[in-house]
Amino acid sequence: MRKIIVLSMITLDGVMQAPGGPEEDTSGVFKYGGWTAPYGDEIGGKVVQEELKQPADYLLGRETFEIWAAYWPEHADFWPGINDGTKYVMSGTTKKSDWKNTVFVESLEDIKKLKNSEGSDIQVWGSSKLIQLLLKNDLVDELRLKIYPVTLGAGKKLFDNGPIPAAFTLTENLVTSTGVIIANYKRAGEVKTGTVGS
Fold first, then answer.
1. Residue 51 and residue 184: Cα distance in Å, rounded?
2. Looking at residue 14, what is its pLDDT?
């Protein structure tokens, strides 16, 4: 069985839209694209470089895939494995791409079959609607979050549209010099409750 790992840059209020630049994703009249840029530092850069070196396949929503397909095939010097890893794209409309190692999937059942197959771990970047679908159906094994000290109020959010109640265990964490919290969590069963102080 393969792990599905969500990697996401989010604001304090959970926005994940267009972290990389003003033109990345302006849907919904989003005007804060590139909100991560002021918080870059050496610590965060090293973490990202390590993530990009990990052998993986990728599960992407259609919109994220289209952004990636327009950029990454020509910039593989920065992310050497991106062209070699298989890109599984959840789409009901797009069925083909010239980007090598691209496979289209259409349903939650396709994703479950993929998760139960043999192969590399599957990373999910961007793809807010897809992540919400995965969280709602308990298909996320790990969350690797970079939490930025900013609120935006509006935009596509990581936790939206009803993720199931689920417990996670913190496996790694650090704070960058600019206040970004890098926290990795793995799925840890059911939510436990109790009474504080008893």
1. 12
2. 96
35/119 Cα distance (integer angstroms): 34
* Residue 194: burial class (beta carbons within 10 Å; 0-12, 13-18, 19+): exposed
Do residues 152 and 13 make contact, with C-beta atoms less than 8 angstroms apart? yes
Which residues, 6 or more positions from 143, have their beta carbon under 8 angstroms from its beta carbon?
A: 5, 6, 8, 168, 184, 185
Residue whose C-alpha is closest to residue 124's, from 12, 15, 16:
16
Query: Would you report the helix, strand and coil content of the chain in percent, each value rounded to 5?
Result: 20, 25, 55
Measured torsion, CA atoms of residues 183, 189, 194, 198, in degrees rounded to the nearest 10: -70
Tokens describing residue 76: 């593989």
pLDDT tens per residue, range 48-64: 999 988 889 999 999 99
**Pairing mode, if any, of strands 142-148 and 57-61?**
unpaired
Q: How many CA atoms, within 13 angstroms, populate the side-chain half-sphere of residue 123? A: 19
Render pLDDT for 7-58 as a digit per residue (tens, 0 to 9).
999 999 999 999 999 988 999 999 999 999 999 999 999 999 999 888 899 9
State how beta strands 142-148 and 4-11 pair.
parallel
28 and 15 Cβ atoms separated by less than 8 Å: no
Task: For residue 194, give both structure tokens.
Answer: 């109790």
Enter the pTM of the model: 0.94
